[in-house]
Design brief:
binds calcium ion; mainly beta; single chain; 25 strands; Immunoglobulin-like; 14-stranded mixed beta sheet; Carb-bd_dom_fam9; 4-stranded antiparallel beta sheet; 2 domains; globular; about 350 residues; Carbohydrate-binding domain-containing protein
Length: about 350
């Protein structure tokens, strides 16, 4: 038997917890709970920078978030000096319509504002706006498709050029840095449909990790930041993670979850192995992170701003760090993350 219950409109949006008490002749017999999402509009409009056949596009999605069909008006878009209108009609329950707007004719490199206005038959228009940043393709680092086995032993990554921290990295705040034997190494970022993978072979004369969870940045560890699209397009929806070999084993910690999409704290969904070889002074990190941990990034969109650093502690204090790109160690700024592209 189903009994529909209407909820009083409190004007509050977001997730609401509901509690109902079931009584029989005044005696409580059951307590029911439910969680509901209160939306400001049944229709959402989002847009992101994507690559389609190696061409930059602004990919627009119009989604009916509710369980009933919804008529919608025309979608008017502007991108740089271009503009257009699309007729959508009616969106079925849960349906998403996508539209890829080409960037042909826009200055590259360059920043181009966009705006979207979806007319609604009986309500205010749904509007969104932002910026699309075109990056010189020569300045975009290719991440190759390669699944790895996370066991602390580097897989065969022959044919994939690593990021060589000895030449491509920048040492920060370590005035007495003793060269690559003090802190250096090679890093490979790879991917498949399910995960983004990190393989890092870090040379470091002393492994020291006094921290746990949110303090792992004070010891030898890797920190990385990532956000969908090109750097500078989204300054709040970025992710920041840490990876460390602690006294309690490998730990993954999240300091920023896409601006509130995922909670900050220890992360269980990521597979991490870290092995330390005291004979060769090498620490190997292997990580498989499901794409859901970088939501709403979709690997089919291919463009990911990605930055990382290696923290350095040789037994006393955090001396500083060695970074590829920037925007993590000295201050949080995802506009400084390097631009990367998922390649075959
Ligand atoms: Ca392996
Ligand atoms: Ca060292
Ligand atoms: Ca160290």
């Amino acid at each position: 038997m189903q009994i529909p219950i209407s909820i009083r409109d409190t004007g509050l949006l977001g997730t609401r917890g509901l509690v109902a008490l079931v009584t029989n002749n005044g005696t409580p017999v059951a307590r029911l709970t439910a969680e509901i999402d209160v939306l400001s509009t049944p229709i959402t409009v989002t847009a992101g920078h994507a690559l389609r056949e190696d061409a930059d596009v602004l990919s627009v999605s119009v989604t009916n978030q509710v369980a009933t069909d919804q008529p919608v008006g025309d979608l008017a878009w502007q991108l740089g000096t271009g503009s257009g209108t699309e007729t959508i009609g009616t969106l079925a329950a849960g349906q998403t319509v996508t539209l890829d707007i080409p960037t042909t004719g826009l200055t590259s490199p360059g920043t181009h504002p966009w705006s979207l206005n979806l007319a609604m038959p009986d309500a205010d228009a749904v509007t969104e706006n932002g910026s699309l940043v075109l990056v010189d393709p020569a300045a975009v680092t290719a991440l190759h498709q390669r699944t790895i086995t996370v066991d602390g032993v580097p897989d065969d990554l022959s044919g994939i050029t690593p990021i060589d921290l000895d030449t491509d990295g920048e040492v920060r705040q370590i005035p007495d840095w003793g060269g690559a034997a003090d802190l250096g190494g090679d890093v490979w970022w790879t991917w498949d449909e399910d995960n983004i993978y990190l393989t890092a072979a870090i040379t470091d004369n002393v492994h020291a990790q006094p921290g746990l969870n949110d303090t792992i940045w004070t010891g030898d560890s890797i920190q990385f930041g990532a956000v969908a699209g090109a750097p500078g397009e989204d300054l709040t929806g970025y992710y920041e993670y840490g990876l460390a070999l602690t006294t309690q084993g490998p730990q993954v910690f999240r300091w920023n979850g896409g601006g509130g999409i995922l909670p900050n704290g220890p992360v269980d969904a990521v597979d991490l192995a870290v092995t330390r070889d005291e004979a060769t002074h090498t620490t190997v990190y292997e990580m498989a992170m499901p794409w859901s941990e970088l939501a709403p990034f979709d690997p089919a969109d291919r463009l990911l701003a990605l930055s990382f650093l290696v923290n350095e502690n040789d037994g006393a204090i955090r001396r500083g760090w060695l970074e590829w790109g920037s925007g993590i160690g000295a201050g949080k700024n995802p506009a400084l993350f390097p631009s990367t592209r998922l390649d075959p």
